[in-house]
Every structure is written in structure tokens, then in C-alpha cells.
Amino acid sequence: MHEWALAEAVISTVEEVVERERYEEVFEVNLIMGELQQIDVNIIKFALKQLKKGKLGKAKFNIKTQKASFKCNVCGNIWVFNKNKFNEEVSEAIHFIPEVSHTYIKCPKCKSPDFSIVGGRGLYIGKIRGRK
Amino acid sequence: MVDPRISIIDGRLRGVKDVVVVSSGKGGVGKSLTASILALTLSRRGYKAGLLDLDFTSPSTHLILGVRGTNLREEKGIIPAEVFGLRYMSIVYYTRDRSTSLRGEDLSNILIELLAVTVWGELDFLILDMPPGIGDTTLDIIKYINRSRFLLVATPSILAFSTVHKLVDLLKSQNISIIGILENMGRGDAALAKHVEDIGVKYLGTIPFDDQVEGSMGNVDRLCDTEFASSIEKLALPSILSTMSKEL
Known about the structure:
The complex is a heterodimer of chains A (132) and B (248). Chain A is elongated. With 132 residues, chain A is an alpha+beta fold. Chain A has one domain: hypothetical protein PF0899 fold (2-Layer Sandwich). The two termini of chain A are 33 Å apart. Chain A has helices spanning 2-20, 41-51, 88-96, 101-104, and strands at 25-34, 60-66, 69-72, 78-80, 115-119, 123-131. Chain B has 248 residues and is α/β, with parallel strands linked by helices. Chain B has one domain: P-loop containing nucleotide triphosphate hydrolases (Rossmann fold, 3-Layer(aba) Sandwich). Chain B has eleven helices and ten strands. Chain B has helices spanning 9-12, 31-44, 61-65, 92-95, 104-117, 136-144, 158-173, 191-198, 212-216, 220-223, 227-242; strands at 16-23, 49-53, 73-74, 78-79, 81-83, 86-89, 123-129, 149-154, 177-186, 203-208. In chain B, α2 packs across α11 (227-242) and α5 (104-117) runs parallel beside α6. The radius of gyration of chain B is 17 Å and the shape is globular. The mean pLDDT of chain B is 94. At the A-B interface, α1, α4 and β6 of A face α5 of B.
């Protein structure tokens, strides 16, 4: 239930935005979910539903998945994450801390562990729609 | 796009009364040993203590304590391991102690992730073992746990003091509390004490080089029986407890 912790973080952040921007009610929250973190969509949706309250009570959470990609800092190669290449233990480690992909992944072209996660790392909040 | 993890960090640490950051400008001065022994000593004194290893590329507290591989429990977040009376968290649970090279943005992301999802619960003290220097992790701790108090470790070497001095400058400029500077591997002269006094920081005392330590690695009972451990208890603990005693 690591997803629950992430859902709490989403709710806490949206509540801060609601307070700061003086929303009366939130209709919609758009979430971008990076593929690398392999978040279970059903669990996080369930957690968000359980946690939303007050001005967020009727908010709909839209979740869009983003492909994870890497760029090698040595040879410039760009490639995408393929979770099928890893066993359950490694997948789970990357799920909890996406940066430990540096432990288990190397550039397929030059074999360097020096790469950047250029997209699809984790969970981000996009546009929030509501009434002020 | 907004990173949702940041806003939850304060809440995750709400049950932690005091955050003590063991830091130094230089590597190899005994930070991890100090952090580990400090956490163990607090726990053995009856305080609820946690230890978080923030040296993500070169973690070592698991070797010092002799933590054996285990999986962490999940319950609406990640529950730290219970080891030797401590709540303990390290990246080695995820890297399996394999080589992991990381750039600055990765270091920040790991720190934020761990702070956002680790459920520490109620603690009297959370001890942070820092990587050397004044880079990303130090800046992030100042940014995200502003109430932290820093316990600095140096050796008699002027090289170590020079880097600690830079760390002191950074912390002072950001109004971060400094508990004091502990001298490790002392040679019995007063040179470092004088330097520390000159920069207006409390000199906590000197720990002589302790031959017993290396052979006690991985065995907490033997570690707690070393001169190093008794020095930590005698020199560092009073300053750490004095400011907390009213609250605990």
C-alpha cells in the first residue's frame, strides 16, 4: 500500500492549492503517472476515493500514464523502460524508489550506468479544475 | 506539473520530536559510526530513536550495525525496519547493496521519496547519517527539514576542519542549529578545539582513535562496548539531550 502514501501526498498538495488559490469546490484533478514507478492504478484510485473530503469531496481524479524513458549521459542513447525485463524483486525496488533503476539498468548501447530518467519517473499533479 | 510528495514531508515527520543530522565536510571522519552509535545509545537510554542513512551512493550504517537483508513492511507507506531497538531505513533495502551511481537530481528524488513515504510514527529522535560535503543532500535537508539540528564530525586534520568550516558557514547563513563539533581520531592536542572556538561553534570534545572499533563492526553489543561509544555518550549526548529534556 505504498500507493496509499502517494495518494495522501496528492490530497495534501491539492488541499494546499485549494487553500492558496481559494477554490470553493474542485471538480477535476489530472494526475500524470510515470510508468517507471509502476503504480497500481486501481489501488491509488481507491485510496484517493477514500481520502478525498471537503472541497475535494466530489472531485474526479483523471490518471494519465506516461512512458518512462532514459537518456545515456555518455553516448546520448535514448531508450524506453521495459518492466518485463526484471524479476519481481527488482520491479518492486524500482516501484518504491525509481532512481534505483541505476542499480539494475545500464545503457543498452554503451553499458554505462550514467543515464538520466528523462520522462515517466513518478506521480505528478497536472491541471486542477474547479470553482473559485 | 506539481510534485505531490513535497507537501506531505512535514506530516510524515510530525511524530518526530527531534531531527539530528550527523554531517561533515569530509568523508572518512566517522559520521556513519557516530550516527549509528548515537542512535543505538539513545535507544539504550530508553528514547525512541530512528536512523536514516542518507548516503545513497555509499551507505554504510547497515554494515556498522550488522543489519541483515529483509524486506520492509508496507502499511499506508513504508514502515522502517526494527533493528536493535531502532527504526531503520536505508537505500540498501532496494539496491541490495549493489553499486548505484547517482547524479544530483537522482539524489534529491530519492531523499524526497523516502521522506514522503516512510512512516516513522512517534520518535524522540531521528538521526540522519549524511554523505560528506555540502552538496545536494545537505541542501535538501536544509530545505525540507528546516528544524534539523546538525552534529558535525571532524578530525584533527586541517583538511577536515577546512571543509567543516564551509559547512558551518552554510548552516549559519541559513540559521540552522548546530549542536557542536565532535573531534574524532583525536591526537590529544588542542589545535582543533581552538579552530572550532574561533568560528564560534561549540567544541564537544575529542574521541581518541579506537582500535577496537574495526573489529566490532556488525556487532552492536561489541560496538556499544567500545571507547568510541562511551565517548559519544559522554561528549555528544549531553548537548543533544539538554535542549530536548524539557520537551521529552
